[in-house]
Design a protein that fits this description.
269 residues
Length: 269
């Protein structure tokens, strides 16, 4: 190459880590036909055409994997998987199967749809340690990876860091890579024991945690989470219609963050 020639440079957005990543992950919650982002098969296809690079996980909301026609869910799950997005069933569906003693039928249903992951939660049920691990082993033998959600929908006390740390350690040793912290737990702790959230952010195992946000409080609450935990915090419960804007917030784009990408470049805003 002639010394006077230079490689052409691309015009690129503010830098952020690419998939697969351990920090800065975004998990959307697919509500189906809903005002937060009309998904369905064609909606998911459009979403992924625009934002697949910024979405790491997609949860099929609550009971939708059972309520929607199976062929529709199967197509949606395949779209996510083909785009490199880990699509999983919501924890409420597991809790429903648990309550009705139909966990085997539940597992068969997930496999027939094409899921390779599921969420186990204890929002309204309570399992002992042995029972919880037994279910994890059971699903892993079926070829399903497990994402665990920590916390209750209606917590009675702030979360205890030592309990969460012990759980993350135990689950990690059983092949569970990610633990979601329920939104209600975050809200109560932020209100009554904010120092606990600072301890959580500083924990060496924090990269395994996904913090649930509240789609109804976008973007204000999400900006607060980025400020409290850093722009590379793993966030869950992101509505499909918010995924691209959240990526912008992470990169300093938008009024909600005062276009901080410009300030980082030394430009006065």
């Amino acid at each position: 190459m002639n010394k006077m020639e230079r490689e052409p440079r691309s015009f690129v957005p503010p830098e952020r880590s690419a998939k697969p990543r351990k920090r800065g992950m975004t998990a959307v919650i697919d509500y189906g036909p809903d005002g937060f982002g009309w998904t369905g098969e064609r909606g998911v296809a459009d979403l992924l055409d625009c934002a697949a690079d910024y979405i790491d996980f997609a949860k099929i909301y609550a009971m939708n994997a059972l309520l929607l026609p199976k062929p529709v869910v199967r197509k949606i799950v395949k779209l996510y998987r083909d785009a490199g997005v880990n699509c999983y069933s919501g924890g409420i569906l597991f809790e429903y199967a648990y309550r009705h003693n139909e966990v085997d039928l539940f597992g068969d249903h997930l496999l027939s749809i094409g899921f390779n992951s599921l969420e186990i939660s204890e929002n309204y049920i309570t399992m002992n340690d042995n029972e919880r691990l037994s279910f994890i082993d059971r699903f892993q033998r079926l070829g399903l990876s497990v994402i665990y959600e920590f916390g209750r929908k209606n917590p009675e006390q702030t979360m205890r860091m030592e309990e969460l740390e012990a759980l993350v350690t135990t689950l990690s040793n059983r092949g569970v890579d990610h633990v979601i912290v329920e939104q209600s737990e975050i809200d109560m702790t932020a209100s009554k024991a904010p120092e606990q959230l600072k301890a959580l952010a500083a924990a060496p195992w924090f990269e395994r945690i996904l913090i649930e946000a509240d789609p109804y409080r976008f973007p204000k609450q999400h900006v607060g989470l980025l400020q409290d935990f850093g722009k590379d915090v793993n966030l869950a419960n992101i509505a499909p219609g918010q995924a691209l804007r959240l990526e912008g917030l992470r990169r300093g784009i938008g009024r909600a963050v005062n276009y901080s990408m410009l300030a980082e470049e030394g430009i006065q805003v």
